[in-house]
Amino acid sequence: MSKRIFVTGCGIITSIGNNLEENLNSLTSGRPGIGKIRLLETAHRDTLPAGEIKLRDEELARMLGIELRDGLTRTALLGMLAQKKHGEMQDAGCRMEEGRG
User: Fold this and answer.
1) pTM of the entire predicted model
2) Quick check: 61 and 67 in contact, CB under 8 A?
3) Fewest Cβ atoms closer than 10 Å to its Cβ: which of 20, 22, 58, 82?
4) SS3 (DSSP) at 50
């Protein structure tokens, strides 16, 4: 059975990198992204390890060139930053080619 897949972007920010290149380097070098929780406020802070993006909301907003305001969630900031990184790739002439599988 053949299924079609559509890749809509390549922007990525994770616990092992803030962009596509950093993530690829971390993956190929075996660098882990799981560790002690430093930013997330949780009762499990000192008991459970987690994969945490090591940027504060203020840093994310600064990277986006926007003002941090009420109602703007961390999830929204991370999504906007991933989209910005994807746009930078397109501006640099990077593009996805159609593949057959």
Assistant:
1) 0.67
2) yes
3) 58
4) strand
